[in-house]
Design the sequence.
C-alpha cells in the first residue's frame, strides 16, 4: 500500500494569497458544482504568482499534496477528473487517508524542467524524442502511455486563405496553401503561433520546416503572429484577430462556444489517420527527484489501467463531446536511442536544467 506521510510540508509551494483562494472557492460554489468530499478549484479562474494550483483537495487543509505538471488537459478539466477518480479509488481500496493533487500549469518543455528540479512528482508530456532524453538523463524514471489527443488546423470562418477543407488534404498541403495565400495577401491572412516550446509549438514548427519554411527566422515573416499564451487564451486571441492556428482537439472542444462560432475546422487529426503527424500522444513521466515518487508511480500505473485512468479518459466529455481517446492497449516500449544516452555531467549536452539542491 502506498500512501503519503503526513510529515510532508508540500503546501508551502502554494503561495497564492489566502483571500484569493477563498474567493475562487466561493466562485466555485456559485457554479453549483461539488465532487464528493473534495473541493475543486477551477484552474482557469486562478491567476497566481506561480503556476501551481491545488485542484482537488479534501476538506482538511493538513492533507499532503501530489504535484503534477500538465498543459491543456488541466484547462479542459481532464486532470480534475483523473485526480478525483484516483483519490476515490485509492482511498476506498486501501487504508490511505485522503490527499490532494496540485496542478503545475506548464507546457511540455516546462514539464520536463519541473521534473528536473523536483517541483513536480509526475508530468504529462507530448513529445517522444524529448521523453527519451529525459529518461536517458535520469530526470524521469518511468513512462506510461496515458491518452491520445489530436491536433487541428483552425481558421476564420470566412477562410480568407481559401484553404481546402477536405479529409483527403494533408496538413503539409494546407500549410503550403496558407503560405502562398499569406504572401499574396494584403496582410489579412495571418497565422498565430504560441511560440512557447509547447507540444503544439513543436508540432507546428515541424510542419513549417517540412515545407521548407521557418517564418519565425530573421527576416521575420509578416504573416506570423507570435503570441505565447496558454492554449485556451491563444485560441481566443486567434478568434478575435481572425487568424489561423494549430490547436489540440481537447482545447478546441473545451473552450467557450463564442470562440468556435468565430472559426472553422480546416483539418482534424483522428486515430485512424494514415499518418501520425496530427497525433498528440500524452505520456505520464514519473520524475526521479519528486517528494512523492512512490505515489507518482502508483498514479502512473493507475492511469494505464482500463478500470482506472483509461475509463476516465474514455468517458471524459465537455458538453457531450468526448475530448480524448484511450491509449492503445498494446504499444511497444518507449525505446532509448543509443545516440541519446548522453552524459548529464557534460554542460554542453544538457537539454533540461540540473536538479537544484
Sequence:
Amino acid at each position: 500500500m502506498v500512501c503519503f506521510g503526513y510529515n510532508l510540508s508540500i503546501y508551502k509551494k502554494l503561495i497564492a494569497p489566502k483571500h484569493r483562494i477563498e474567493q475562487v472557492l466561493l466562485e466555485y460554489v456559485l457554479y453549483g458544482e461539488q465532487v464528493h468530499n473534495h473541493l475543486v478549484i477551477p484552474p482557469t479562474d486562478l491567476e497566481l504568482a506561480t503556476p501551481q494550483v491545488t485542484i482537488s483537495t479534501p476538506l482538511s487543509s493538513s492533507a499532503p499534496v501530489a504535484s503534477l505538471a500538465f498543459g491543456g488537459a488541466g484547462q479542459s478539466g481532464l486532470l480534475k477528473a483523473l485526480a478525483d477518480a484516483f483519490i476515490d479509488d485509492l482511498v476506498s481500496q486501501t487504508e490511505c487517508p485522503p490527499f490532494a493533487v496540485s496542478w503545475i500549469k506548464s507546457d511540455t518543455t516546462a514539464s520536463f524542467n519541473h521534473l528536473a528540479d523536483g517541483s513536480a512528482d509526475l508530468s504529462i508530456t507530448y513529445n517522444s524524442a524529448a521523453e527519451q532524453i529525459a529518461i536517458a538523463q535520469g530526470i524521469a524514471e518511468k513512462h506510461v502511455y496515458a491518452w491520445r489527443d489530436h491536433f487541428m488546423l483552425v481558421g476564420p470562418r470566412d477562410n480568407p486563405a481559401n484553404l481546402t477543407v477536405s479529409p483527403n488534404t494533408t496538413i503539409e498541403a494546407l500549410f503550403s496553401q496558407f503560405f502562398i495565400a499569406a504572401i499574396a495577401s494584403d496582410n489579412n491572412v495571418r497565422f498565430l503561433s504560441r511560440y512557447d516550446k509547447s507540444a503544439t509549438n513543436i508540432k507546428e514548427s515541424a510542419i513549417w520546416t517540412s515545407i521548407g519554411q521557418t517564418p519565425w527566422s530573421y527576416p521575420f515573416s509578416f504573416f506570423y503572429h507570435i503570441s505565447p499564451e496558454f492554449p485556451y487564451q491563444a485560441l481566443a486571441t486567434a478568434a478575435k484577430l481572425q487568424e489561423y492556428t494549430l490547436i489540440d482537439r481537447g482545447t478546441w472542444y473545451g473552450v467557450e462556444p463564442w470562440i468556435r462560432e468565430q472559426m472553422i475546422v480546416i483539418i482534424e487529426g483522428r486515430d485512424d489517420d494514415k499518418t501520425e503527424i496530427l497525433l498528440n500522444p500524452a505520456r505520464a513521466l514519473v520524475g526521479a527527484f519528486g517528494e512523492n515518487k512512490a505515489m507518482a508511480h502508483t498514479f502512473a500505473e493507475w492511469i494505464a489501467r482500463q478500470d482506472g485512468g483509461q475509463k476516465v479518459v474514455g468517458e471524459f466529455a465537455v458538453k457531450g463531446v468526448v475530448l480524448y481517446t484511450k491509449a492503445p492497449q498494446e504499444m511497444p516500449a518507449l525505446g532509448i536511442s543509443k545516440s541519446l544516452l548522453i552524459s548529464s555531467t557534460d554542460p554542453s549536452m544538457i537539454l533540461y536544467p540540473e536538479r537544484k539542491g
Summary: The longest helix spans residues 78-93. The CA atoms of residues 68 and 356 lie 18 Å apart. The first strand starts at residue 38 and ends at 39. The chain is about 35% helix and 20% strand.
